[in-house]
Every structure is written in C-alpha cells, then in structure tokens.
C-alpha cells in the first residue's frame, strides 16, 4: 500500500507520534506548503482576463488559513456575518470579500452593506428585501445555470432540485425588482455544486451564466463558482483535478463572450475544497479492536463529531496506519470498519476497508481533512473540539487553534 504522508513528506521533520503526544488526539495537522500550492494552482485557471479566486471560507475558516489566502492574493466569499467577522479579524480588505448569503435578514445584510462589501442576492424575495432597505445600491444576483454537479445529492447547488439561486426564467422579474428600488446589478454569480472531477458540467454552466450575463449590461464581476474536486482516493491512484484542461476549455468561451459583451468584467471562481482539502490530515489513536457478528471494528477517537463527512455523505477518506511515527504499510491486511467514540451506530469513518493489521496504540491518519473537516466539527456527547496545528514552510509546527476545553463547553450555561 502506498503512503501519501511519506510520499508528500507531509509532516516534514516533525514526528506525528510526538505531535499526537504533545497536543493530544484527535488532532488536525495542516501543511502550509500544500495549502499555498493548491491556492496557486487555482489562481492560474484564467490567465488572459482579469481574474480573482474567491476562497470559499466555509470549507475552512481558521484564521491562519485566511491569512495565507490573504498573502496569496486571494479574495474570499463569506456566507454569514460570522464569516465576515472572521475575515475582519485578519484584516481582510472589504473590497476582497464577496458576501453570498442565503435566506438572511436585512439586519445581517446591513452588516455587509455598512462595510461596502458586495452582496449577492439569491432569490427574488431577498433582492426585494435588499432593495427596500438599501435602495440605490450596487449588488449581485446568484443565478441557477440549470446545470448541477457534485459528489452527493446534498451538495449539488444548481439544476432542478435546489433551494439556491434565481432561475433563468426569473431574470426579467429580478430586473424589474432592481429597477423598482433603483438597484444596480453589477455582479452575477453561480455555484453548480461541490466536488466534480470532470470539467464538462462546469464549462456548460459557465456558458449558461455568460448567456444570462447578456441581460445585464453593466457587469463588473462574473463569478463562476467553485466545486473543483480533490482526489479522495489518491492511495488507489486517483489523479488530480484537470485544472489546465479547464483553463484551456474556458479560454475560447471567454474570448467569445468578451468580444460580444464589449469588455471583460472581473471573472471569479469560488473554490473552497480545492484550496484546503489536501492540506490537512487528522491524527487519531486506536484504542480497541473487536469483532461483532463477523464484522471487524477498529475503535478510534476520530468520531463523527471530528469528521462529519463520512456519516453525512458516505464520503470516502483514505486512512493510513502510523506506528512509531512512521507509515505502517507492511504485513498482513484485514478488512475492517473504522469507527469513532460517539454514541451512534452511524459513527463510522470507513466501512469494510482493507487496511494493514493494526494494534492498539497505533495512530490512524485520515487524509484530505482540510475541507469541511474542522469547519463542520461539533461537540456532540460533550466532546470538546480538537486542536489544529500547522507544519510551517520552515519545518516548525504552530498551534493555530487550541483544543476546546470543558470550560469552553460549560461557558454558555446560565445555571
Ligand atoms: N460557493 C458557494 C456559493 C458554495 O455554496 C460553496 C459550497 C462553495 C462556493 C465552495 O464549494 P467547494 O469548492 O468547496 O466545493 N460540506 C460538503 C460541501 C458543501 C459545499 C457547500 N457549498 C462536503 O463536505 O462535501
């Protein structure tokens, strides 16, 4: 079996066993160089026209990562007032924030408007609410391009069955509402869904959005959304997302559009996962092995509260065994179901997975945990959320979020 952590030298000169002992398990470990590398890759998607990457911080809002995005010249999309506040904490310039909320109050919109942050409205009602409260302003609208894509039905955000965006047929009405409130629609955006490895749906959606853009003569920005996949089956040889192919496919489409539209607005993409997924792993400890009714279980401290994706979407995460600080890939293999310490039968990281025979005290290393990992952690069963550390480019290790304490958990009670 291959080992990603060895091949990528993920831990650099740090020893994962020592990290686990120092900071405790479960532990999120990030790698600065990988994060920067992925951000740079996506920054090369459109090269001929003005283009910015909006890092979609819902994937991971740790302020250390937001600072890296800032340094790499990325912009950010925020989904809530809380996310805007996190960006403010790292002094992210307001003109590099795009606020893309869904079903929010005008008070929450006000938080962005007061700071001159561009807001995207994703329904006729939200556009109307915005217009009533902030007449005469500039804004964007989120359009459903009619094409969706994603790794699970729960994360497809365009096409037929989705709560998001304004459909193409309603563009006329959106323009009416905007006119009524003297709003200037200067941006148009979309997001087809999360995690696709083929470029065709994205290109089709871009074409549709560009067709819709022609209804809006004064656009300053067109945001094509994110969703670029990362290889979650890399130990089985799954390849990377073909970013260069997407670059090559988009260029002639943009050429045609710019010729017809008369000028090139700022083009944007909005990736979350691509920037951060591969830049983190979770270290967990094996505490028990057992066999129930013919199923072998590997009992660890990486519960669904620490990584929700497998229990929510049946998502696959490669898992390596580490012994004495080194990837353990030798010896016998066994079919095993990897579970956590949460009181739910659905608390499974992997089902019937072929893995090297491990023993109590080994570490598990869950790959590709940087996106929608910590940001979706929760404290079920009164388990404090784990610490996050980062292996820096100079080889040192920095705590970028301390482990939650029991005091933190108690802090909100009033009795
Ligand atoms: N823009 C908008 C408007 C979005 O709704 C999303 C993701 C993104 C950008 C970033 O998508 P990405 O490039 O990360 O695929 N929790 C799920 C994914 C939910 C995605 C929600 N929206 C998961 O763990 O797979």
List keywords for this structure.
single chain; 19 strands; binds ligand LLP; TIM Barrel; 8-stranded parallel β-barrel; about 425 residues; Lyase, Ornithine Decarboxylase, Chain A, domain 1; 10-stranded mixed beta sheet; alpha/beta
CATH superfamily of the largest domain: Alanine racemase
Q: Write the CATH fold name of the largest domain.
A: TIM Barrel
Relative strand content: 15-25%
Q: Tell me, rounded to a whole number, the average pLDDT.
A: 96
Poorly predicted runs are none
Strands, total number: 19
Q: Using only CA atoms, what is the Rg?
A: 23 Å
For the termini, the CA-CA separation is 53 Å
Total domains, how many?
2
- What is the CATH architecture annotation of the largest domain? Alpha-Beta Barrel
Bound molecules: ligand LLP
By helix and strand content, what is the structural category?
alpha/beta
Shape: globular
Largest sheet: 10 strands, mixed
What's the CATH class label of the largest domain?
Alpha Beta
**SS field, number of helical segments:** 13
Helical residue percent? 25-40%
Assembly annotation: single chain
